[in-house]
Amino acid sequence: MKKSIEDLALFGGRPSVTEKLHVGRPNIGTRESLLRRINDLLDRRWLTNHGPFVDEFEQHIASLVHVKHCIAICNGTLALQILIRALELKGEVIVPSFTFVATAHALEWQGITPVFCDIDPRTHNLDARQVEDLITSRTSGIIGVHVWGRPCDVNSLTTIARKRNLRLIFDGAHALNCVYGGRHVGNFGHAEMFSFHATKILNTFEGGAVVTNDDDLARTVRLMRNFGFADYDSVVSVGINGKMSEVCAAMGLASLESLDEFTTVNHRNYNAYQERLKNVSGLDVVPYDESENPNYQYVVLEVDADVTQITRDQLQAVLWAENILARRYFYPGCHQVEPYISRPFSVGSPLTHTEYLVKRVLCLPTGTTVTIESIDEICEIICFAITYGAQIRHRLERHPIL
Ligand code: T4K
To answer: What's the CATH code, domain 31-257?
Structure first.
């Protein structure tokens, strides 16, 4: 228990947590279930290229989110790139800047200019009202991102895309099993994408998928995933190696068996943070809407430094010194990093809310490795740092260590 700010590890005290607590620690389901499958695939000597586990994994994801086609890809970024190419996007595409940089890079990699649009500060998602103003004769599409698994304004974006004859896709990297208007994410726009990276609620070590109800698009994505091979030795289009391996699909299948448990633990952790921090002025644990079937894989804190005295970055420094590795996703915003920062025309509208939010947001450790006892410790440190906010800030401003 810290009594004075001298007890903080940042100022020489003992860290309150001995083993580092990470954001993004992987969820691992039943080991035996994974190992049994690894034995199977070794016995079969079928390691990649459309093996039975990839097939089975695709069917499970499609049925989980009630979508016609799931095409498993080796990671989420390549899933986006293949989708962007399959839809023949070109010129400019409107995206939020408040997202992981992969969303913007997937466009840039294909020679398409991402045009950054501001977000709605309430939802942290693309502000559909501003999207229309950014459409030019070069615009070919819109990518909405379901940040933190909270679905973006799908209805408004669909209306705009239809009216202006644009392609619409969604980056659902965070939104597996989440619901918008009674339908699962995966069913909107021309297609959507999921990430199954190690840090995601359900992981395949590395992995991703394109999901769609469009038969032709699904066929094109499947071709592109496999060098454009339509048959044994017939190549009918350009393609790449985007295949998921059998061992990754085996991990995905094992993880699927534990998905309910992962969600339950995330929900429990989220409630624990919410309960312990709800009365702290200047801190907001970003809420989820039960009707959207949230997976709670991110616990997101918004820090209002005018009220707390301590800034988000100072709070993060306090936590890191205590071995609590909170993350400031998605700092500093895509438009503030290369190559976009050197190209001011990428910023379509003033990104007022994005720039405000990237300075306030801090993701806290959660997932199946995080216990209620750890959350008690994390929240104790946070509350302590807020109580002594003015002193900590004063000390850090006089002796900057950040
Ligand atoms: N769109 C969006 C909206 C996304 O958020 C992402 C990925 C993508 C697209 C692209 O999907 P992928 O191509 O990745 O499938 C991490 C993940 O690498 C990235 O997948 C994720 N978003 C992003 C939000 O987070 P970093 O740069 O924060 O990774 P890193 O290495 O710093 O790890 C994060 C934390 O996880 C650390 O605290 C350590 C911990 N960790 C990580 C790994 C890999 C572990 O404890 N064990 C592990 O095995 O990007």
So the answer is: 3.40.640.10
